[in-house]
Amino acid sequence: MAELRADVAADSPSLNNSSNNSGVASQSNNPLSRKLNKILETRLDNDKEMLEALKALSAFFTENSLRTRRNLRGDIERRSLAINEEFVQVFKEVKEVSFVVKNKRF
């Protein structure tokens, strides 16, 4: 994993700032470097929430293209909205049935 981080840092001009000679210190202050290191250090087998999120994402993100990556946030928001609308609709039905049962005289 450390070798991969070194390769990424060596290949990225934004991570290798030649005007700054502080080496590791400059990389740790670079926001992109910090984000990359955090991602590379993530242990997915211990992060159940991340695994569930990736499984859910893989159900509808099947093609890795520029267009699908650009539209990913919108797709996720539309799916979230559809789920919430479905919840509201089911809740309305439950409320109506509850109202009818509550007001029905036996």
**Radius of gyration using CA atoms only:** 24 Å
C-alpha geometry: elongated
- Uncertain segments are 1-21
Mean pLDDT across the residues is 77
DSSP helical segment count? 6
Q: For the report, how would you describe the main beta sheet?
A: none
- Structural class label: mainly alpha
What topology does this entry show?
Layout: H1 2-11, H2 24-29, H3 31-41, H4 48-60, H5 66-70, H6 72-103
Question: Could you name the key traits of this structure?
Answer:
106 residues; mainly alpha; disordered N terminus; COG6_N; COG6; golgi apparatus; Conserved oligomeric Golgi complex subunit 6
What is shown here, in short?
This protein is mainly alpha-helical.
How would you sum up this structure, described in words?
The chain has a domain at 31-104. With 106 residues, the protein is mostly helical. It is built from six helices and no strands. The model is unreliable at 1-21 (pLDDT under 50).
